[in-house]
Design brief:
One of its GO terms (molecular function) is branched-chain 2-oxo acid dehydrogenase activity. By secondary structure, the chain is of the alpha/beta class. About 40% of the residues lie in helices and about 15% in strands. It has three domains: about 300 residues, 3-Layer(aba) Sandwich (Rossmann fold); about 190 residues, 3-Layer(aba) Sandwich (Rossmann fold), CATH 3.40.50; about 140 residues, 3-Layer(aba) Sandwich (Rossmann fold), CATH 3.40.50. The protein has 26 helices and 19 strands. The strands form four sheets. Strands 8-7-9-10-12-11-17 form a seven-stranded mixed β-sheet, sandwiched between helices. Strand 11, helix 20 and strand 12 form a beta-alpha-beta unit. The longest helix is centred in the middle third of the chain and has 24 residues.
């Protein structure tokens, strides 16, 4: 423990005291006006003020900060006013963080003179991964001399003690020590979750736990004593800034307020409240200031002045305007610069290439042109270059700082992209198989998908997430799944699904340049065109300048004018492997089948879909997914509504059987999945309807 000492300048202690008074006055105001202030659930920093202010005073405008929901005093220490914080408390229009969209103590800030504070969720512990991604980006950009290493930028990630038991925190710690990242994990330990005590939730505290992560510097401080906290954080910042390695600071604090306004302390804490009150940071600092010559009258006058100031800020915030309801849907996505197809799709004398090579070449082009781009995931670095060789030789070409292997950590692979993007790195990452994405869904939903919307457009997340998908040839239950419907239920991400090499290359470039999170689903059965009937997935390789915008479907096969005139035509709306099943089946009814390849599932080119359906009056929606409750069924329902008066038959759908997994045996797999024969049966029935 760093001992309390008068080495901390008196001016700094007085500043801290005034801000502690401010935090107390704010908490008292909220409690006195709880009918108004508890309309939206909130927490305060009471009991944690000393360590939070000590942290804030060491941060600079070049740093990055990830706070948790109790860190109001950090925000005050950085220079935000009570009025600004109260605007968020009351969900007002001019809330500087989210415009009234998210909870108190959930900042997202880009402001001159302040550290950058990206959006994060309040799911406890989850912030550790995006925060570590920020430190990872700093380390990477410094290694490429895009950022100056001598400026000593650091990331501070604030965590409650209960969150350290989360598995995602372990993933963050592992990467921080593995990559020697400049990050400070500040763990504020008040020994409570909501109603559960620390002894119920953990076998050790965060300081003891961190001993298992070799290379993590560890410090303990008295989080209720400002001087001890200040000197401890001074050392933590020195290690992170100068030695460029991770530090964990364990700060013991009392919890003086409610866990949140919705969970009242008196319901369950009993005598514990009295015990914690003995460690109140405010009277501790009060006594230290008196010892250094300030009078009780001076301190009392300061308290009265702060109380009046906070009351004025409260009244101002109460009178502030509410958000305009008409703005509720702004900032789902940041605008993309890629709105038109550009470059050369079919260069003269170019050879045909496979989808897997088109993807490889696209990433190669990106890494060559954009030094801030990097590529990581399981087994994509080193000698192997991916289990499908989709990153072959990239690590040798660009170095292990740019193309590298990660541990088996899907949550880190996905969630770190949020931090990377906030700092200015441009990550391309890979989940090895679609069936392995589930540990990363938490980060995808809570951190990536919501950031642009909840930060009012300040923090869109540029992330390209590659995911091999689909079944063929006995891949079995953990390497064959289709996941697009799950992804499409996550608002705020884009989902792309190319079916041929040219589209793969053009869409990959557009996905990388899109400022939003994009999941690129790549059917591994199409990678090499080895599956019978998929030869057309090999195409002439586009030039390196080719870009194909997201959200544009493609009519890959037209019906003949004669069959349309005779009323003997239909359209198949599909994507991925479905394109080739439909092509094979349509050969048995020449001229009768139009095929629409969606290429992008969100944003969806519904205009092309609707026009095709109206042109033919009959439609089959085809997918590889199990059909029940799928994207395909949803699309069929939408078609049925908007095209009802143009339909000559019900909207047909075809997909895999409704089973929980793709079986290993190839004959069982064949029974479960669609194929050309099954598609022809559906087409024949629909044409005869």
């Amino acid at each position: 423990m760093v001992e309390s000492s008068p080495k901390v300048d008196l001016d700094i202690q007085v500043k801290a005291y005034r801000l502690m008074l401010t935090a107390k006055a704010m908490a008292d105001t909220y409690e006195e006006n709880k009918a108004i202030c508890s309309k939206y659930v909130h927490s305060t920093s009471r009991g944690h003020e000393a360590i939070q202010l000590a942290t804030a005073f060491h941060l600079t405008e070049k740093d990055y900060l990830s706070v948790y929901y109790r860190d109001e005093s950090i925000l005050l220490g950085l220079g935000l006013s009570p009025y600004e914080l109260m605007l968020q408390l009351m969900a007002k229009r001019d809330d500087p963080f989210s415009g009234g969209r998210t909870y108190y103590g959930h900042p997202s800030l880009r402001r001159e003179g302040f550290p950058i504070i990206p959006h994060q969720s309040s799911a406890t512990g989850m912030q550790a991964i995006p925060a570590t991604g920020m430190a990872h980006a700093l380390s990477y950009l410094e290694s490429q001399e895009i950022m100056a290493a001598n400026e000593g930028r650091v990331v501070v990630c604030s965590l409650g003690d209960g969150s350290v038991t989360e598995g995602e925190v372990a993933e963050a710690f592992q990467m921080a020590v593995l990559k020697k990242l400049p990050i400070i994990y500040l763990v504020q330990d008040n020994d409570w979750g909501i109603s559960a005590k620390g002894s119920e939730m953990r076998a050790m505290d965060a300081y003891e736990y961190a001993a298992g992560f070799k290379g993590m510097e560890r410090l303990r401080v008295d989080g209720s004593d400002f001087s001890d906290s200040y000197l401890g954080m001074q050392e933590a910042f020195r290690v992170a800034r100068e030695e460029r390695r991770p530090v964990l600071v364990h700060a013991k604090c009392p919890l003086l307020g409610h866990h949140t306004s919705g969970v009242r302390r008196e319901w369950y804490r009993g005598d514990n409240l009295t015990q914690h009150a003995l460690e109140d940071p405010l009277p501790k600092l009060d006594a230290q200031l008196v010892e250094q010559g300030l009078t009780a009258e001076e301190l009392s006058a300061m308290a009265e002045e702060v109380k009046l100031e906070v009351q004025a800020h409260y009244e101002q915030a109460l009178a502030a305007a509410n958000p305009d309801p008409a703005t509720f849907d702004l900032h789902e996505f940041a605008p993309t610069p890629i709105t038109a197809e550009t470059g050369t799709r079919s260069p003269q004398n170019a050879e045909k290439t496979t989808m897997v090579d088109a993807a490889l070449h696209a990433v190669d082009d990106i890494l060559k042109e954009y030094p801030e781009a990097l590529f990581y995931g399981q087994d994509v670095g080193g000698e192997l270059g991916g289990v499908f060789r989709e990153a072959a030789l990239l690590a040798k070409k660009y170095g292990d700082n740019r193309v590298f292997n990660t541990p088996i950590q899907e949550a880190y692979i996905v969630g770190s992209t949020a931090g990377m993007s906030a700092v200015g790195a441009k990550p391309i990452v890979e989940i090895q198989f679609a069936d392995y994405i589930w540990p990363g869904i938490n980060q995808l939903v809570e951190e990536l998908s919501k950031s642009c919307y909840l930060s009012m457009g300040k923090f869109p997340i540029q992330a390209l997430i590659r995911v091999p998908i689909g079944a063929y040839g006995g891949g079995g239950p953990y390497h064959s799944g289709s996941i697009e419907s799950t992804l499409l239920n996550i608002r705020g991400i884009k989902v792309v699904y190319p079916s041929n090499a040219a589209d793969m290359k053009g869409l990959m470039k557009a996905a990388f340049l899109d400022p939003n999170p994009v999941v690129m689903l790549e059917h591994k059965g199409l990678y090499w065109s080895k599956v019978p009937g998929t030869e057309e997935a090999k195409t002439t390789e586009p030039a390196s300048d080719y870009i194909l915008p997201l959200g544009k479907a493609n009519i890959v096969q037209e019906a003949s004018a004669e069959q349309i005139r005779l009323g003997n035509s239909l359209t198949v709306i599909t994507y991925g492997m479905g394109v080739y099943w439909a092509k094979a089946a349509s050969k048995l009814v020449p001229g009768s089948v139009e095929i629409v390849d969606l290429r992008t599932l969100n944003p969806l080119d519904y205009e092309t879909v609707e026009a095709s359906v109206k042109r033919h009056g009959k439609v089959l929606v085809l997918t590889e997914e199990p059909l029940m409750n799928s994207f395909a069924e949803s699309l069929a329902g939408r078609i049925g509504k908007t095209c009802f008066t143009h339909l000559d038959a019900p909207v047909f759908t075809l997909g895999a059987e409704n089973l929980p997994a793709v079986p290993l045996n190839v004959e069982l797999e064949k029974m479960m999945l669609p194929n050309a024969d099954k598609v022809f049966t559906a087409i024949k029935e629909l044409l005869e309807y």
